[in-house]
Amino acid sequence: MLPKPHRASIVFYVSDITRTEAFYTDVLGIELVRQEGAEPFWLSGSLDQGLEMVFFEMEGKRGNTPALIFDLLDGGIDDIVAALAEKGVTIVTPVAEAPGGWSADFLDPDGFGLGLWQSGEKPRTLT
């Protein structure tokens, strides 16, 4: 049995990370923290209910955003993506290096973008 996701984050791919930081902090009052690991930097913040919001600056569109990203606490991203593909799930972005770990993107049956992320410290396979 494959491990289930641990928690979820909403990820936004934005055109101007500095403008995004100003809007969410100054206008909406959400505290965001600058993170290293992507250029120029990326942002993260949590709402009171524990939902994490993550912002990356990217040129062009990388799928539809915001995207719901599932965190894999125990790792195993390669196994999970292979199992999804075997079940006919459309894999948009195969497992690739991401800030702090590994990620992959796929579509649900209605075409909504979903993703997986795991820490680089966890094993990519569990089998």
Briefly say what this structure is.
The chain is an alpha+beta fold.
Annotated CATH topology:
2,3-Dihydroxybiphenyl 1,2-Dioxygenase, domain 1
- Beta content comes to 35-45%
**Class computed from helices, strands and strand pairing:** alpha+beta
Total number of distinct structural domains: 1
Q: What general outline do the C-alpha atoms trace?
A: globular
Do you know the CATH architecture?
Roll
Main sheet properties: 8 strands, mixed
First and last CA, distance: 10 Å
Average residue-wise pLDDT: 84
Cα-atom Rg, whole angstroms?
15 Å
Q: From N to C, what is the helix and strand string?
A: EHEEEEHEEE
Strand order of the largest sheet: 2-3-4-1-5-8-7-6
Which CATH class applies here?
Alpha Beta
Organism: Pelagibacterium luteolum
Domain VOC: 6-119
Pfam family, one: Glyoxalase
Protein name: VOC domain-containing protein
Overall description:
The protein is of the alpha+beta class and 127 residues long. It has one domain (7-119): 2,3-Dihydroxybiphenyl 1,2-Dioxygenase, domain 1 (Roll). The protein is 17% helix and 39% strand. The chain is built from 2 helices and 8 strands; from the N terminus they run E-H-E-E-E-E-H-E-E-E. The chain has an 8-stranded mixed β-sheet with strand order 2-3-4-1-5-8-7-6. A hairpin with a 6-residue loop joins strand 2 (33-35) and strand 3 (42-46). The longest helix has 11 residues, at 17-27. Residues 6-119 form the VOC domain. It holds the Pfam family Glyoxalase. This is VOC domain-containing protein.
